[in-house]
Structure formats: structure tokens, C-alpha cells
Task: structure prediction
Amino acid sequence: TSVKTNTETIAAVATPPGRGALGILRLSGPKAAHIAEQIAGTLPKARQAALRHFRDPHGTVIDQGLLLYFPGPNSFTGEDVVELQGHGGPVLLDLLLRSVCALGARVARPGEFSERAFLNNRIDLAQAEAIADLIDAASAQAARAASRSLDGEFSKRIHALVDELIQLRVFIEGALDFSDEDIDWLADDKLRTRLATLIEHLHTLITQAARGRRLREGITVTLTGQPNVGKSTLLNRLAGSDAAIVTEIAGTTRDVLRENIVLDDLPLTVVDTAGLRESDDPVEREGIRRAWAALAQAEIALYLVDDRVGITPEDQALLRQLPTQLKVLVIANKCDLSGHPPNTATSHDYELIRLSAADGAGMELLTEAIKRIAGVTDNAEGIFSARTRHVDALRRALAFSQDAQARLLEGVTPELAAEELRLAQEALAEITGQFSSDDLLGKIFSQFCIGK
Ligand code: GDP
Ligand code: ZN
Result:
């Protein structure tokens, strides 16, 4: 990455809008120190706080508070950074921001501080994203995961894979240069073993990144089954509110209803759908078509049956039609009516959970099962945060590496194996931002909050 030297000094209020005990204004750039001196007087020593009056450009005192100075390049952004920590009044902070802008700073774009930190090689792209994820974390576990990524745990794994890819490329390209000699370097078992190990590591990392992504982006759970089995009741139970209309009339839920909830630290999008059955009503038929569409998008399907009836032949036929990517849990609902206690069992090769959506009995069994399927049980150690774009890049790297493996095994076009490995390396480099377009960077940083 080329280091871009910014000539502009940026400023932003780093604390949230509204009133609070403290309000912090942050400056970064070549003029940060000079502007701060005009506002707050002599700068304290690096990384030490000093109490100062803050004045507007006419010399009128606006506020008093702490002045901190972080000289570059060892600051967050890599540039000179100054923090003015005053009182958290929106009018005060606005005056302060106007004052620094009158003295030559400009208002920062969302994420611009982090963007500069990235461009000045203070953090890589995955770490910059982890900062945003830490701020946005919807649960304690998600926050811990983001903090691990910020520490560089995810990036370290990527760097290790990139290093190995480079070495393999060097080896193959070197071997090609000596190809007219007697020894066939490319037939060497060591090379194949190393590539196989690399592929294994990619698989593991994809699984881990997918877990981290679920903590951040959640997992989609679709409720399905025949009409009147209690799908809408279960949605309301999960959401803790009356989001869906529950009636005794079969076919009430006609559209697809989505609720975003946090189930024991795991963000979920729960989708309630129309009951699957033959219908002459065009509206209901459209609802059923949408139900199938929702199933195609989901990761987990909860297939409900009435516990008094169990899994019928119709249910078995419908279960067999579910898209193969789905993890299916059969929910034997209304156990309050069947008289069976809540439990987990296996039926017709499906994992079955017996519960009552109406009175909530057995809901903890469902929570546990969903978290287990998502791979985010409480004892799942070492999860780091990740995003869809990371998982996609890892999958591309895996596909290229597997192609390289195939080329090597065929032994016909080993020069293409080296090229596939180069592409795999490039895909991984997108994650840490060593290889990324300005478009991508703009997209990532614009989603940050102001002042970060
Ligand atoms: P859906 O068509 O699958 O969405 O089913 P609903 O959620 O609309 O429920 C259909 C009927 O079953 C309603 O009268 C609910 O009150 C009732 N019901 C749903 N779950 C339970 C349950 O666990 N126990 C009992 N006793 N009734 C339930
Ligand atoms: Zn319903």
C-alpha cells in the first residue's frame, strides 16, 4: 500500500450526539497541533493531559477541559492527533468544531480517521473493520470477537496463509525454471502435502470466519410447516412481542414477516411464512410461493408440527423438498396439549425439539440448538469477527488453491498452478487491504460513524 500524505487536517466530534458529561473533539493532520495551540494554548507533552481553556478564534472562552497531543507517526492515524476533551453540550461542541474549521481544519467524513490509520499502515483493513464492528456489536460475544480481530488475530492468520502461498509459488516457479533437468521437482510429495495443508487451513479459517460473521450479521431462521401448527406463535415467542397475527384460522400468515432479534447474544432474523399446503386462494398461493423463496435464503429452517400428531407423511414429503443447504430442526409444538414434557429427540432422521410456543416450555432447548448450529455456543473460544466480504474472499482463495492442486496432480500445466496460487494470494490480500480498490475502501469507510 502506498502511503498517502494528507495535506488536509480533519476534525470531528468523537462522542455521540446529545448532552453528556464529556464531549471530545478530535483533530488529525499536519495542522492539528497548530490549530490546537490557537484554541487551547501551549501543547502538553506527548500523550499527557493538561487542563486548558478552549477559546474561539476571537479569543472568547468557550469551555475548559483537557488537551491531549499525540504526535505522528505513533498516533492512531499516524498523523499528528489532538484531542480536546470538554463538556458534552451539543452547542459547545458545535462552537468548538466551527472554531477549528475557521482555523483551517475541515469536518471529517465518516470513518476518515480509521481510513487514514489504514492508509498510513497503522492498521490493516480487517482491523479497521473490526473497529466499526466493535462499536456496532450487538452482543457481548460479538464485541469480544471484534476485539480479537482488532488485535490482529484474524489478520495474522491471513498473513500466514499469504506467506505460505508465496513460498509455494516461488517453489513452483523455481521448479519450472529447472524443468529440463533430470529431477522432477513438481512431483515432490512435499509440495503436494504443503498445498493440501494450506487448503485444510483455508477450510478451517472459512468455518471460523463464517461463525464470526454470524455473530455480527446474524443468521436467518425460517419458520415453516403446515398451517396452524404454531409458526406465528413461535415467532412472537422468540421476538417477545405480538409481531405476527395468530388466529385459529389456517392460512392467516400470507406474507413473509421478518423480525430481527437477539437470541442469547446471537442476532437472528426470524422469518414467519405462510403454511405450506395446497390452496385455491391466489393470495395464499402467492404467500406460499414467497415461503419457498424465503426458505431458499435461510440457513436454518424450523419445521413445525403439532406434537399431538407428529410428523405425518405430508410433512415427510415437504421436509424432503426443503433446499439442501438448510439445517432443519423439527419442532413438535403444542406439547402442552400433547402432555409430553419438553425434550430433544430424533424422529425420521431429523433432530426434533418438543416445546410449547404458547407457554414457552422448552424454549431454552431451541435456543441451545440454534446456537450450536450457528457454531456460537458460549464455550466457543477464539471467535474473531468477520464479514461477508471476508468469507467470500476466503472461499475464492480456496477455489483457486483447489484448482492449483488439480493442475499439479494432472502434471500437464504446472505453470497454471502457479498462476492459480497467485490469484488465491490476491483474494486473501483483499481481506487485509493490501490489494483493494478505492471503491471498496470508500464503501467500507463510509459505513463508519463520524469521528472514528
Ligand atoms: P401458524 O398458522 O402455523 O402460524 O399457527 P398460529 O401461530 O397462528 O397458531 C395456530 C393456533 O394454534 C392458534 O390458535 C394458537 O393459539 C395455537 N397454538 C400455537 N402454538 C400453541 C401451543 O404451543 N400450545 C397451544 N395450546 N396452542 C398453540
Ligand atoms: Zn402463521
Observations:
- The mean pLDDT is 90.
- Residues 189-217 form the longest helix (29 residues).
